[in-house]
Design goal:
conserved putative lor/sdh protein from methanococcus maripaludis s2 fold; 32% helix; 6-stranded mixed β-sheet; alpha+beta; Elongation Factor Tu (Ef-tu), domain 3; single chain
Length: 444
């Protein structure tokens, strides 16, 4: 529906341009009028073709760098030095930012002191345990000779068990103190934020003196020579889109306008609300033309239609009188009007009046730029712009024959670009007043 509304705007704007061109001159021929004074409309027409229709799904994608990660601080402290700038290449482990470490050094010293205390207490408890252990052996020896009472033996045994528990507790405190030392040591090391992977630095958000926390994003890091394009697939698309299918990534930043790659992977888990999933396309980016965060257009090619007659998508027209969908087909070939065309470039001149008939069609398959239909023969000429200028099932119009490249270009133009293109065409076809005045003033 969105494509149909856009194409309607394209047709209306181009129709205005065509009418302006056909009415720009002063002679009856340039105005598009017949001898009776009736205005003959001007339209654009392209020649139908025969073949298979590539089936594509056009989606929006977002560029991500390989191993793209956001850099955060694990500790809170002021920045004392920033080691890198946007665009710098760094290796894994290279320092990015240094934070003030005074507080963490003091905490580490305190933790080490607590460890020493715990170790000393452990030694003291072990010494006490050894002393009581000796007394217990003596008491057991006396008890075997009936030289000591049973109560004295039980008392020494209880003291031994208590001392043994004290040793176990002291050793646990040593382990606790050692863990605290390790933690403080790790915090001290985290005051120097290092690159987790090789890559290029960007999105710098760090200045000397700034207090950072664990919620402060400092940098974005990633490898720009290999990128990943992320797209979203609906559950319906999963019925015909699969991995390893061909995709075309279209972007103005690319020298050729597009680059081809395979669909790398599709997540098997769908979102519970949107019922969509993510798909990814891996491709090389040696010239760094595509930047992370860019929006690109992705055409996923998932097959071809059967052999049929193909026409541009803009040629389809819904007849307001009957409500049927069809195309306006020229009653005669237009080849005689374009016999002098070179290199496949469309004719800029309008033809003599040509008769057109409205032919109902059935859409067999629909592509991004063209459709396969019935009731139209290959090589017949169909109107692509200007259908609204016909009054019914039949009509007469002067025609500008155009190529498919021209039609596809119009279908991909933004609205502002389309208006500019029409204005340039009108200026090229109609000399300005200054030129006319100069020509009239020039003696013959």
């Amino acid at each position: 529906m969105m494509i149909r509304r856009f194409l309607t705007r394209v047709i209306l704007l181009c129709t205005i341009g065509l009418v302006s061109l056909s009415c720009g001159g002063n002679s009856s021929e340039s105005s598009g009028s017949n001898p009776s004074g009736t205005l003959i409309p001007a339209v654009e027409a392209a020649q139908a073709q025969y073949g298979t229709l590539p089936l594509t799904e056009r989606l929006s994608g977002v560029v991500r760098a390989k191993n793209q990660v956001a850099i955060y601080s694990e500790v809170s402290a002021p920045i004392i030095r920033v080691h890198v700038e946007n665009g710098d290449l760094v290796g894994e482990g290279d320092p990015l930012i240094s934070l003030r470490a005074t507080e963490f050094e003091e905490r580490l010293k305190q933790a080490k002191a607590n460890l020493q205390i715990a170790v000393a207490q452990t030694r003291q408890a072990e010494a006490e345990l050894n002393r009581i252990k000796s007394e217990l052996r003596r008491a057991q020896s006396l008890a075997e000779k009936n030289l000591s009472s049973e109560a004295e033996l039980e008392m020494i045994t209880t003291q031994f068990e208590s001392a043994d528990a004290d040793v176990a507790l002291a050793r646990a405190r040593v382990e606790q103190a050692q863990a605290q030392v390790d933690e403080r040591q790790e915090e001290l090391q985290q005051t120097v934020i290092r690159a987790p992977v090789d890559g290029t630095v960007g999105n710098r958000n760090a200045e000397v003196g700034m207090l950072v926390t664990s919620n402060t994003r400092l940098f974005t890091l990633g490898q720009l020579d290999s990128i990943r394009v992320e797209i979203v697939l609906t559950d319906r698309m999963l019925n015909y889109i699969e991995t390893k299918q061909r995709t075309d990534i279209v972007a103005d930043a690319l020298p050729s306008g597009s680059i081809r790659a395979q669909l790398s992977r599709i997540s098997p888990f769908l979102h519970p609300v949107t019922h969509s999933t993510d798909a990814e396309i891996d491709l090389s980016n040696p010239d760094n033309r595509l930047k992370p965060g860019m929006f690109v257009t992705v055409d996923v090619h998932y097959g071809e239609s059967e052999q049929a007659t193909k026409i541009p998508l803009s040629a389809l027209y819904e007849n307001p009188t009957t409500g049927g969908t069809g195309v306006y087909v020229a009653a005669d070939s237009l080849d005689r009007f374009i016999s002098q065309r070179e290199g496949g470039v469309e004719s800029k001149a309008l033809t003599e009046p040509v008769a057109f008939d409205f032919v109902p069609v059935e859409v067999i398959a629909r592509g991004r730029m063209d459709v396969a239909v019935t009731n139209v023969q290959p090589d017949q000429w169909v109107v692509t712009i200007g259908q609204d200028l016909f009054a019914g099932q039949k009509g007469t119009a002067r025609v500008r024959p155009v190529t498919w490249q021209r039609v596809e270009q119009l279908q991909t133009l933004q609205r502002e670009d389309l208006v500019q293109d029409l204005m340039q065409s009108r200026q090229a076809a109609t000399p300005d007043s200054a030129s006319l005045d100069h020509q009239q003033a020039t003696p013959q």
